[in-house]
Amino acid sequence: MSEHPSKSILLEEKQRVYRELDRVKTDFAQRGWFPGTSGNLSMRVGEFTPERFAFAVTASGKDKAASTPDDFLLVDEKGAPCEPTALKPSAETLIHCEIYRQTGCGAIFHIHSVYNSLVSELFWDRRSVPVEGVELIKAFNIWDEEAVIDVPIVSNFANIPLIVPEVRDRLDKRIPGILLRKHGIYAWGRDAFEARKHLEAFEFLFEYVYKLKLIQGR
């Protein structure tokens, strides 16, 4: 069997990804998107096949408003550390693994906000958040006139492996995001720039949908 992709990742490449993740982390922390050390970020590094890949992910339990040498670690397609370390990957790393496996994307950003948590509960019965005709849908490269999308919502279990099959079944490759009920959004893209763009668009759309319901009184 050929060596794992993580073995051929250059130190410089790993450091570049860590620096990019640190910039994103600082930006999102300033926006208040990591309350109580919640949320997690990852970027894929090196070669990819659905069966074998590696990515950098935020370490568990860290203050994301601070920058330290221990903020990130490299893990494999099973979410296990690729290098000897005392750091623990985010508890939700298995969800990142599944999204990478299904999409081959380059970066995944997960945050907790009031609006994404609210709409995930408001629309739980239909298991998706409907968005109709809003300009920001174009951020997902959907250019239809008066486009309609449904952002999938999946169950939120304390036992993370129970969430993974639902993510696998409900993920819509046309929509670069998925909500966990009363928990938060996972948004992804080809790289950090696109994942951030998608995340910002989702947050705008969720606030729009929530406030529209208030105005309509239903």
UniProtKB/TrEMBL annotation:
Q: Where does Zn(2+) bind?
A: H110, H112
Q: What molecular function terms (GO) are annotated for this protein?
A: methylthioribulose 1-phosphate dehydratase activity; zinc ion binding
The record's annotation in Pfam families points to: Aldolase_II
Entry-linked Gene3D superfamilies: Class II aldolase/adducin N-terminal domain
Residues in Class II aldolase/adducin N-terminal domain copies: 19-210
Q: Which reaction does it catalyse?
A: 5-(methylsulfanyl)-D-ribulose 1-phosphate = 5-methylsulfanyl-2,3-dioxopentyl phosphate + H2O
Q: Which GO terms describe its biological process?
A: L-methionine salvage from methylthioadenosine
Q: Which GO terms describe its cellular component?
A: cytoplasm
| Top class in the EC scheme | lyase
Pathway recorded for this protein: Amino-acid biosynthesis; L-methionine biosynthesis via salvage pathway; L-methionine from S-methyl-5-thio-alpha-D-ribose 1-phosphate: step 2/6
What cofactor does its activity depend on?
Zn(2+)
EC number(s) per entry: 4.2.1.109
Tell me the cofactor note. Answer: Binds 1 zinc ion per subunit.
Q: Which UniProt keywords apply?
A: Amino-acid biosynthesis, Lyase, Metal-binding, Methionine biosynthesis, Zinc
**What function does the entry list?**
Catalyzes the dehydration of methylthioribulose-1-phosphate (MTRu-1-P) into 2,3-diketo-5-methylthiopentyl-1-phosphate (DK-MTP-1-P).
PANTHER family registered for this protein in UniProt? METHYLTHIORIBULOSE-1-PHOSPHATE DEHYDRATASE
Protein family membership: Belongs to the aldolase class II family. MtnB subfamily.
- Protein's name according to its UniProt entry: Methylthioribulose-1-phosphate dehydratase
Primary gene name: mtnB
